[in-house]
């Protein structure tokens, strides 16, 4: 079981919820995303949130939300607490939550049983947790959405990858103890370098595929990973050519040194 303060943190900071949302229009059992008709109906509903000009753009922007709500609480629990839960797609529900004008959905699990590694067996346990999150959930969702909305699966996977990088390089480290920092770093390196492709349901590790070196360019004051795919954010913006800072459509000229 989680300690009360651990559960409070997952609920407060990492998009886990223990109760169904009262807002049902944009709430759905995640497994319904695997049904083409239900998937397209749901994407049509959430298109009103994103105001995107194309079905592919809606799918991509939804994938960002789904990636975050799925991986934030699950990976934080794994790396910070060495505790895991069943994040397979049949156990997950998208619960619609608004914070001000922003739509910030959360994940609710039907079965909240918690697992922990046996002594000296954390690596095998970690593989089971990773498989539950990615091969048994995200990969299945992306395959369905890719076919239903006619969008490249690579775009959906890169939307996931950028959040994995950001969470592990930034948010997960905040307030972490030395032991937690060590696990966070070890798990991150495993995810983006060594985790076998079958844990993601893919032929290659998608987190490794998009892990390009950070660069300082004229488009960004901070070092950034330039995306390999465009997420179509600009198709939901009121401003023409309003791209994400890491978009490959931007001319990322390197900054001269010296």
TrEMBL record:
InterPro entries for this protein: FhuF_C
Residue span(s) of domain Ferric siderophore reductase C-terminal: 227-249
Superkingdom of this protein's organism: Bacteria
GO molecular function: 2 iron, 2 sulfur cluster binding
Alphabetized Pfam families for the sequence: FhuF_C
Listed name of the protein: Ferric siderophore reductase C-terminal domain-containing protein
Taxonomic placement: Bacteria, Bacillati, Bacillota, Bacilli, Bacillales
């Amino acid at each position: 079981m989680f300690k009360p303060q651990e559960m409070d943190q997952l609920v407060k900071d990492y998009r886990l919820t223990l109760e169904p949302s009262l807002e049902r229009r944009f709430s759905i059992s995640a497994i319904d995303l695997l049904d083409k008709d239900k998937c397209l109906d749901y994407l049509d509903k959430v298109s009103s949130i994103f105001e995107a000009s194309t079905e592919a753009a809606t799918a991509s922007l939804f994938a960002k939300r789904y990636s975050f709500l799925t991986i934030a609480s699950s990976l934080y629990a794994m790396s910070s607490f060495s505790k895991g839960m069943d994040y397979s797609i049949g156990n997950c529900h998208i619960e619609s939550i608004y914070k001000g004008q922003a739509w910030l959905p959360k994940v609710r699990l039907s079965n909240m049983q918690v697992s922990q590694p046996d002594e000296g067996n954390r690596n095998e346990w970690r593989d089971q947790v990773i498989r539950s999150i990615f091969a048994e959930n995200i990969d299945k969702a992306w395959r369905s959405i890719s076919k239903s909305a006619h969008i490249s699966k690579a775009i959906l996977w890169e939307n996931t990858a950028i959040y994995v990088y950001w969470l592990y390089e930034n948010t997960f480290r905040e307030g972490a103890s030395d032991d937690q920092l060590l696990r966070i770093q070890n798990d991150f390196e495993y995810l983006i370098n060594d985790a076998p492709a079958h844990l993601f349901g893919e032929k290659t590790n998608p987190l490794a595929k998009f892990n390009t070196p950070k660069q300082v360019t004229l488009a960004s004051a901070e070092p950034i990973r330039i995306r390999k795919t465009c997420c179509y954010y600009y198709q939901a913006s009121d401003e023409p050519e309003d791209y994400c800072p890491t978009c490959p459509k931007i001319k990322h000229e390197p900054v001269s040194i010296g």
